[in-house]
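Support request, please re-run this one:
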Amino acid sequence: MNATTYPIAKFRCGKIVTTPNALERLTREDILRGIGQHQAGDWGDVNEHDQQANERALTEGTRLWSVYQAANGTMFWIITEADRSATTVLLPEDY
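Re-run finished. Output below.
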């Protein structure tokens, strides 16, 4: 049996919600992989400035934002609120 390893979470996500548009276009696996990466501090395809902002947000308690690509090529975002009460999975056009 192969053991699956999961990265250590750097923060709590709070309530996880997904927009209807994202649910329609992303697979469950895309969403779960993205949330795992986001929570582990792998911010995906954000630029250097946004990576640094996310690193500061971990200690300053501000909003966290990640950008990923689904297996079908669809770009999606994951945003965790500053108070860590909720994390939203959405497509850019849902913002």
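The two ends are 42 Å apart (CA to CA). The chain has one domain: 15-94.
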